[in-house]
């Protein structure tokens, strides 16, 4: 006997994921009058409980580094919660010879909770890479088509910056930038001498009040979450206005398993695991927006197999999971003796850089294609565990002289990070691992990864550039001032982690993975059309970084929001015409 | 103020968010008030070591005090709670246990051989003589058997610095000025060569 619940609720849209893309979609769709049910794989965010803003290291027993000191770095105890490289019971695998790291934030707001807030527009050439240099593919849309949505996003979330007219690094709608710190003043002067463009950074942090959000109070702790929401996060800036419409239903702890196809060939529901009750659930909707993060959205499509889509939903092209890229990352640090003369002063600023270097060789002949930008930071930051190794290892010994040496060197180190464009290659992709399932019984992703020669050359160029900036600014590359290397028997604990020769990040390490459900005009070579709508299944849309066709040297989040806004407006148009 | 009452305070503040706002944020003045309220450091109770036995903990405290002692400017590693921090993390990490256990074992064995006393019972100049052997990496060049003790001591030196310079007294000693509320960021004061 077929049992049909008479009260089966059918929403207009099911949005999977509550981060940059999902949050934007929820806001635009609900404000446009549609009912939205949102599935979030983690819990609701509770800023009162979850944010450790303004706490001192000594107010936590482990001083921030967690049990056994194992939580140092991006996942430390101070950071906004629930972002991890490894999640118990939810593994991913790498093919032999590949390594890939996958950062996932299972919580309301997703990865916007810890986002560095670097808000860079892609430039005109970034949408036309193939036309520019013959490699990769062009997007089906142009900068001019996306620009109005960049305007909308920046106006709503608040971004500081300055008008600079840098080629292929478009200016936006900016609040005034904060003044440079001492470290930034020093490096800016060196860059001027080297003819490297160094300008105010562009960050999604308020320097003036906006809507109900106060301006930044310059505590440098954006990564911890902000009780005044002076920085942007989806959980505090996108979800609340969506909820205020009364048309948003948020289902937390809901791990999407599969998109269910109706008899009409369109998606009719999403099945998910309710993690809190460990039960299988299903939610019905007239359309589905995947915004679970590029790889998670690809995984969901690939796991949604049916007679009509044996290779995964909306994957008749076979491109889902392919074209996976991450930013090219390389780092180097320098020590600057003149910074010892800095007086005691408040050096905090916003939670991130006040200055940065956009790609300054655009259109020039280089020995590699595309480009990178440089992020840098350091100085008299809040002391933290792990921050004194350089001083201790350089001075050695013990006693009052060691204590004084650490004080003298405090704040004199500046680190540089290059973030460059990777060209998609056939060796880098993700697929369903035929062997492994997560604890919910959902097949997991297996990653294949290989940097190309262009990325290696780019990383070498980054290293050479960092070195020239450090030296031009009167500093020394960290780890090289010791005339003899540490004795091998002295162990790894005090070796400075610098690998200057051709050091390149691990795949996924920069957390800019994207491209796995690409858009395009040719349905044989792409999964989504120019509105991020599936070619094969018209009521399925993707609103994270999966639709990206290239991974420009601009952090993806601003573009995720601009595309999600655009896709959502398109969905409202379709709804008005009765075509959703 | 303990964590529970801090939460209660923040909660009460966020319930008084400006009327009409749909955002779950609190205005700056309220956040600042909450911040000042949590500045009261929790009173430190007596600490019971979790990993080291009484003798080991006494040795650890002595080493921390020697590595970063109190001086005319400020208190040292003991006032900064470095031994408590080190003991807690070591109780949770076998790699740390191996290194610090190895260091203490080597110190006591070496002192017993040379002076027929444990490390803590050795005279100050005897302790200095031993530490000077393992406080510098170059000493391993002439005596390879010092490699491991040098590695272990270097580990403890870093660990002690982590504990001290992230404490209230250590942060004040470094001269970090921040973690506060500013209405405007003032930028860089004049610095020669910058």
Q: How confident is the prediction overall: mean pLDDT of chain B? A: 87
**Unreliable residue runs of chain B:** 9-19, 38-43
Name of the CATH first level of the largest domain in chain A: Alpha Beta
- Helical residues, percent of chain A: 10-25%
Following the backbone from N to C, one meets helices and strands of chain B in this order, namely: HHHHHHHHH
Number of helices of chain B: 9
- Helical fraction of chain B: 55-70%
- What does the radius of gyration of chain B come to? 23 Å
Main beta sheet strand tally, sense and closure of chain A: 7 strands, mixed
Task: Give an overview in words.
The complex is a heterodimer of chains A (580) and B (194). Helix content of chain A is 22%, strand content 17%. Chain A is α/β, with parallel strands linked by helices and 580 residues long. Chain A has two domains: 8-55 and 104-115 and 120-158 and 233-319 and 510-580, FAD/NAD(P)-binding domain, CATH 3.50.50.60; 166-224 and 328-420 and 452-503. In chain A, helix 1 packs parallel to helix 11 (557-576). Chain A starts with 9 loop residues before the first strand and ends with a helix. Residues 481-502 of chain A have low confidence and may be disordered. Residues 9-19 and 38-43 of chain B have low confidence and may be disordered. The two termini of chain B are 42 Å apart. In chain B, helix 1 packs antiparallel against helix 2 (28-38) and helix 5 packs across helix 8 (147-165). Chain B has nine helices and no strands. In chain B, 57% of the residues lie in helices and 0% in strands. With 194 residues, chain B is an all-alpha fold. Chain B folds into two domains: 3-38, no CATH class; 54-174, no CATH class. The interface between A and B is large, with 91 and 81 residues.
């Amino acid at each position: 006997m077929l049992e049909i619940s008479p009260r089966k609720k059918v929403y207009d849209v099911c949005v999977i994921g509550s981060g940059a893309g999902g949050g934007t979609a929820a806001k635009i769709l609900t404000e446009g009058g549609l009912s939205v049910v949102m599935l979030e794989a983690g819990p609701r965010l509770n800023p009162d409980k979850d944010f450790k803003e303004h706490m001192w290291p000594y107010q936590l027993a482990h001083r921030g580094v967690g049990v056994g000191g194992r939580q140092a770095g991006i996942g430390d105890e101070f950071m906004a919660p629930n972002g991890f490289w490894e999640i118990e019971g939810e593994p991913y695998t790498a093919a032999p010879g590949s390594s890939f790291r996958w950062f996932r934030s299972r919580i309301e707001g997703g990865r916007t909770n810890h986002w560095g807030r670097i808000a860079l527009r892609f430039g005109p050439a970034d949408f036309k890479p193939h036309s520019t240099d013959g490699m990769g593919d062009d997007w089906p849309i142009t900068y001019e088509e996306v620009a109005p949505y960049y305007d909308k996003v920046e106006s709503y979330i608040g971004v500081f910056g300055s008008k600079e007219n840098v080629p292929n690094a478009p200016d936006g709608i900016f609040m005034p930038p904060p003044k440079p710190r001492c470290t930034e003043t020093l490096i800016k002067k060196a860059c001027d001498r080297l003819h490297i463009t160094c300008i105010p950074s562009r960050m999604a942090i308020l320097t003036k009040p906006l809507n109900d959000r106060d301006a930044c109070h310059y505590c440098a702790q954006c990564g911890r979450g902000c009780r005044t929401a002076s920085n942007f996060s989806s959980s505090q800036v996108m979800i609340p206005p969506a909820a205020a419409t009364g048309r948003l239903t948020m289902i937390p702890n809901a791990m999407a398993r599969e998109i269910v196809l109706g008899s009409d060939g369109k998606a009719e529901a999403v099945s998910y695991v309710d993690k809190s009750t460990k039960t299988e659930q299903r939610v019905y909707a007239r359309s589905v927006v995947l915004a679970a993060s590029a790889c998670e959205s690809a995984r969901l499509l690939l796991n949604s197999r049916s007679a009509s889509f044996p290779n995964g939903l909306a994957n008749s092209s076979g491109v889902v999971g392919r074209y996976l890229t991450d930013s090219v990352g390389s780092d180097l640090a320098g020590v600057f003796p003149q910074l010892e003369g800095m007086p005691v002063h408040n050096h905090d600023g916003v939670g991130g850089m006040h200055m940065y270097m956009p790609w300054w060789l655009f259109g020039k002949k280089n020995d590699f294609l595309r480009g990178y930008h440089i992020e840098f930071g350091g100085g008299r930051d809040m002391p933290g565990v792990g921050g004194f190794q350089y001083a201790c290892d350089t001075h050695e010994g013990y006693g009052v002289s060691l204590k004084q040496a650490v004080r003298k060197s405090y704040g004199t180190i500046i680190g540089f990070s290059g973030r460059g464009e990777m060209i998609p290659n056939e060796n880098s992709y993700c697929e369903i691992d035929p062997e492994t399932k997560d604890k919910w019984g959902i097949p997991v992703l297996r990653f294949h990864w290989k940097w190309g020669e262009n990325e290696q050359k780019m990383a070498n160029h980054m290293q050479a550039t960092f070195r020239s900036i450090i030296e031009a600014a009167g500093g020394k590359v960290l780890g090289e001032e010791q005339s003899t290397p540490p004795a091998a028997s002295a162990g790894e604990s005090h070796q400075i982690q610098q690998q200057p020769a051709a050091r390149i990040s691990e795949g996924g390490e920069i957390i800019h993975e994207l491209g796995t459900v690409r858009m395009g005009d040719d349905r044989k070579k792409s999964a989504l059309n120019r509105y991020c709508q599936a070619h094969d299944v018209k009521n399925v849309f993707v609103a994270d970084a999966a639709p990206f066709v290239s991974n420009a040297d601009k952090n993806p989040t601003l573009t995720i929001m601009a595309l999600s806004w655009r896709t959502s407006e398109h969905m409202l148009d379709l709804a008005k015409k009765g075509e959703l | 103020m303990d964590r529970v009452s801090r939460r209660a305070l923040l909660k009460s503040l966020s319930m008084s968010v400006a009327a009409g706002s749909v955002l779950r944020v609190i205005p700056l003045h309220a956040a600042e008030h909450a911040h000042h309220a949590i500045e009261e450091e929790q009173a430190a109770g007596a600490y019971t070591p979790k990993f080291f036995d009484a003798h080991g903990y006494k040795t650890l405290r002595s080493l921390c005090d020697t590595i970063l002692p109190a001086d005319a400017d400020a208190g040292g590693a003991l006032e900064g709670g470095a031994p408590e921090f080190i003991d807690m993390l070591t109780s949770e990490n076998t790699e740390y246990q191996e290194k610090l256990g190895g260091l203490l074992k080597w110190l006591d064995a070496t002192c017993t051989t040379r002076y027929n006393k444990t490390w803590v019972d050795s005279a100050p100049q005897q302790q200095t003589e031993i530490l000077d052997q393992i406080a510098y990496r170059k000493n391993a060049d002439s005596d390879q058997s010092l490699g491991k003790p040098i590695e272990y001591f270097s580990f403890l030196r870093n660990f002690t610095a982590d504990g001290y310079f992230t404490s209230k007294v250590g942060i004040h000693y470094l001269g970090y000025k921040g973690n506060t509320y500013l209405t405007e960021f003032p930028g860089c004061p004049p610095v020669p060569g910058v």
